[in-house]
TrEMBL record:
GO terms for cellular component: endomembrane system; plasma membrane. The keyword Ubl conjugation does not apply. Its main location: membrane. Residues 107-124 have a biased composition (Basic and acidic residues). It comes from Koribacter versatilis (strain Ellin345). This is Nickel/cobalt efflux system. It is found in: Cell membrane; Endomembrane system. Keywords: Membrane, Nickel, Transmembrane, Transmembrane helix, Transport. Pfam families: NicO.
Amino acid sequence: MIGLISIIAIGFFLGMRHATDPDHVIAVTTIVTQQRSAKRAAMIGIFWGVGHTLTIFLVGCAIILFNLVIPARLGLAMEFSVSLMLILLGGWNLASFKQAIPGSAGADREHDHSHDHPHSHETLDKLDRKLGQRSFYQLVRPLMVGIVHGLAGSAAVALLILATIRNANCAIVYLLVFGVGTIAGMMVITMSIASALRFVGDRFQVFGRRLALVSGIISVAFGLVLAYQICVVQGLFGSAPHWTPH
């Protein structure tokens, strides 16, 4: 009984710690900078965590129960998908910042349609302009981002569990608790970002645009560095790729 309680406690707090990984925070920040509501930001964090947990649980269970071995090239490809996603999310934020600049074509269009679409300045690109006002889209986007991140980290989490927990049932319980901790951690992060944006009050629009610009630049830069590390240093497209889950 004490062993199970320890697994639950450790899994939960390590899950919260996992949510603070730089690539996770950067990715979710590019989305949350478009939100002022702490409640909506919390939902973004929750759905990111659900997507992340779903992938880690499915892949982790396959590794634990069937001793699944992930080839180095496949593992690198899963991590490479994260770098592409970071570049894409950062690019969307940079495009949003450009459209919001007074005098730009995007800003003029938003001004012309401000009465019909009062929140159009929050959209990121053409897809956002079409779907940005639909609640399902606002939740599906962080869900998909979380799923991609889960792909990159699932092998490392499962292998760590196998090295410390021999019982398969306990290992699966750990995966679930780890996921709950990740959801809680990301919810705290997204709510904190939204609260900081709300704190600046009337200056939110200017502050939000600048934060979107900074988060976009960091996201693109981090994604490019990660892509270089995976493709060149670790040899994703080479003849002898080498990969260490982390």
